[in-house]
Amino acid sequence: MDIALALAAMAVMAIWICRRFGLPTILAWLGIGVAAGQQGLAWLSSEQIHLVAEYGIVFLMFSLGLEFSLPRLWAMRSRVFGLGSLQLLITGGLAGSVALLFGIDIRAAIVIGAAIALSSTAIVLKQLDELGWLNRRHGELSVSILLFQDLAVIPLLIIIPMLGSDSQGSALLLELGWALLKGGAVFAALLWAGGYLLPRIFDQVASSRSDELFVLTTLVVALATAHFTLTVGLSMALGAFLAGMLLGESQYRQQLEADIRPFRDLLMGVFFVSVGMLLDFNTVLNHGGLLLLLVPTLMVFKALVIALLAKLTGEKSKDALATGLCLAQIGEFSFILIGMALTWQVISPDIGNVLVVSGVLSMCVAPALINHCIGLSKWLLGGGDLLRSSDEDEEPLVLQDHVLLLGYGRVGQTLARFLRKDNMPFVALDLDPVRVREAKAGGEPVRFGDARRIDILRHAGLARAKMVVISFDNRRTVFNLLDCIKQEAPTVPIIVRTRDDSTLTALESAGADQVIPESLEGSLMLVSQVLYRLGVPLPNILKRLERVRRRHYRTLHGFYASEGGNKESLHWVQLPSKAWAVGRSLHQVSIAHWQVTIEGVKRGKHRITATPDLALEPGDMLLLQGETSKLERAERRLLDGF
Q1: The whole model's pTM is what?
Q2: 3-state per-residue secondary structure call for 562-617
Q3: 584 with 632, same domain?
Q4: Cβ 81 vs Cβ 151: under 8 Å
Q5: Residue from 570, 51, 443 nearest 274 by CA
Q6: How does pLDDT run across 235-276, given as a tens digit for each residue?
Q7: Would residue 351 count as lying in a domain?
Q8: 40 with 70, same domain?
Q9: What whole-number distance in Å separates Cα of residue 137 and Cα of residue 372?
Q10: 327-348 burial, b if ≥16 CB within 10 A, otherwise e?
Q11: Distance between CA 395 and CA 568 in Å, rounded?
């Protein structure tokens, strides 16, 4: 218990330090492994942590499968299978060939080449996303190569256990072929299960409305598929990846990803702790000079290979070199391959330690290298400042007295057309890369970025904006946006579009200056057209519509009760001669504390205005509006006085 508490405290401190200095959190977990392993405090043994670490790989591969879209892969097939396959084969082949020249066994050389060829999906995507560069050309090229690398991990997970066998020559090739054949059969079986069984299972689970059941089912599916592939002699990670990939096309992908993320992050941390425990300080000290030379050599070699391949496929020199700089590091999946290779004794501990330390050092450099990849590529090509990261291909944005549109879907684009006609500058942020690319191609001032990030809002000129318009309807995101905007620019007016007015008051309390409920505004437009065609003067119509808006659409609430039931209803109450409310004014009989209002009064055949000083008479009929459960109490108050 004391050791577990100490490890948790170490993890908190180490992760905080990494976040504070902008380093990958993987480094924190690796450092804990070094400190707690046999080379440090000797709190943990590899046997204690191995099983938990393996489950970390399972959940990582399941999450990766959820994000792995077959339609997206097919849409990017030319770059993924063209540039991606060339990068992996040539980088890995050259690295493995150099290892063979140094007298390393061919099986170990295959692992070394594969480990060096892989880049860090987690670091690269995170940095590109934060910078808003996923939709730029070097970002798209990086994503394409990473997609193929992630796909290539699957056969590598199958091959490495076979490389650890004692077979030689044709026997080894036969084992590899048999393993790949089994992998294909497993994929076919899981494809059937994923297309037929899993959607039906999750439909039933989702209909139960139980969060606990949904989470538990997700865990069971990930672990069950992992153990299925293990029983047929393949990797657990392979089964988890295939299950995630098949579920990634379902409507439950976002929920599955959210449910699995806490388990994945924690158990992946444990996996990297186990990798850190593999570090041998004696090996590091003995090969210190080699490491100082090896890490920059590997990164330069990898960046140049990727840049040359991208250039040969027709990319601009700047984009090709920026892509190479983004992918120059060794990735987290390299650690998985190294860990498996050590387990199956394909590589020696000395080689494993050198590769792990090289990967850790390259990851330390990766964030800064990605942040300055554009400026660095221009500088290397002799056409720019080393520290500049802007792209001259993009037209400068107007960032003074502009309208900031958050969301560029149907509503955002409609608003932009009217702003453009009146020569009002605007800047739009959106998270759909295809939409952003198409809009930018047409000269629109649109940028890719998550508006919930303060730095992206600052880059879009929030503090100098004349107005902010939130044009999409995602309530949780909108509330987060309002917090960010009010924190950075408390005086900038904010207009929010929602589908209905169920959160109107809450949004205004959170900082929205005006909330536009789409469904109720549609009702008002219909009313205005009907009244106008019936001959009602246009100024009268506009006054009535504005009165409704000032009252927060209150008069549009409440409908006569129906068989289906309503949250708010209208209900008529007639006052007999001995009713408590008779002789009293509407102000005196107030029933507002039940959240019930008197919307109208009917006296005889005529409706009269419900003013606060109107004295009630026997036979008057009052139109009450409120929740059905509270109308009965209000009626009893009017009739009996309590």
Answers
A1: 0.55
A2: CCCCCCEEEEEEECCCCCCCCCCECCCCCCHHHCCEEEEEEECCEEECCCCCCECC
A3: yes
A4: no
A5: 51
A6: 676 677 777 777 776 666 666 767 767 766 776 677 677 767
A7: yes
A8: yes
A9: 15
A10: bbbbbbbbbbbbbbbbebebbe
A11: 51
